[in-house]
């Protein structure tokens, strides 16, 4: 097997070939035809027998070349929650600009996905792995194989791609926010996307709701802007590790994860305190990602 790397090019060094079930059946038929031709000195039988043997040899060569021309590139998987499946994108290319057909790949022989690779293009193969626990999930070596064109031979190789996915804790819990979670630093005037007094515009951010986009300015040819409103924001909410006594580590992380998702959906201002980690209160997608990453990597 090749050493782990983000890009792997297959070659004959770690590629194997064996006949399939159809190949073994063909070998039996070939042997029977050869013995019959020798027994009856049938020249037509000899011609047909050696014609099939030539087809088998050419097919074996094409099957082998169909796989060894591949190059595999590891993509960047998206984070998921524990209990969900991670999709590891693997991009397939051919190094000799020739198409490669019926390329199957997956972590197990019984769980393979088949794709065709065009000669000048790139094909995407999604490897799905169940994430059973939080933290970093590395992609195990995957099996890549093909039986094209005749199906009489199977060529395969094991490839270790250097890629990993972040797995968040499973959002689960039944507790409400404790009273001390709202012990912030008081109320303050902030620029938000609320529905109070209009205070101006700013550049559009991907997390801004479509209802607050300055559509009139966009229709006049200006850049995409977002309306701002001034309102009295609520108190800063602190999600504190110490506010969950009686729960073990994973239960606390799952409950905190659920609170983070709920507060993000509500657009609340919140921060996170873990032993040795403190994320200051904020809002938006970046705050959500920072808190979930801290929960996923907590030791």
List the helices and strands and how they pair.
Blueprint: E1 7-9, E2 16-19, H1 21-40, H2 43-68, E3 70-74, E4 80-81, E5 85-94, E6 100-108, E7 111-117, E8 123-130, E9 135-138, E10 142-146, E11 153-159, E12 164-168, E13 188-192, E14 197-203, H3 215-219, E15 225-233, E16 237-240, H4 249-266, E17 270-274, E18 277-282, H5 285-296
Parallel strand pairs: 4-12, 16-17
Antiparallel strand pairs: 1-3, 2-11, 3-5, 5-8, 6-7, 6-10, 9-12, 10-11, 13-15, 14-15, 17-18
Description:
The protein has 299 residues and is of the alpha+beta class. The protein contains 5 helices and 18 strands. The protein has helices at residues 21-40, 43-68, 215-219, 249-266, 285-296, and strands at residues 7-9, 16-19, 70-74, 80-81, 85-94, 100-108, 111-117, 123-130, 135-138, 142-146, 153-159, 164-168, 188-192, 197-203, 225-233, 237-240, 270-274, 277-282. The strands form 5 sheets. Strands 2-11-10-6-7 form a 5-stranded antiparallel beta sheet. It has a 4-stranded antiparallel beta sheet with strand order 1-3-5-8. Mean pLDDT is 86; it is low at 184-195.
Annotation, overall tally of beta strands: 18
Strand content range: 35-45%
Number of helices: 5
Overall form: elongated
Question: Secondary-structure element order, as H and E?
Answer: EEHHEEEEEEEEEEEEHEEHEEH
Main beta-sheet strand count, sense and barrel state:
5 strands, antiparallel
User: Radius of gyration, rounded?
Assistant: 30 Å
Which properties best describe this structure?
3 domains; 5-stranded antiparallel sheet; 299 residues; alpha+beta
In short:
The chain is of the alpha+beta class and 299 residues long. It folds into three domains: 7-168, no CATH class; 170-187 and 235-299, no CATH class; 189-233, no CATH class. It is 27% helix and 35% strand.
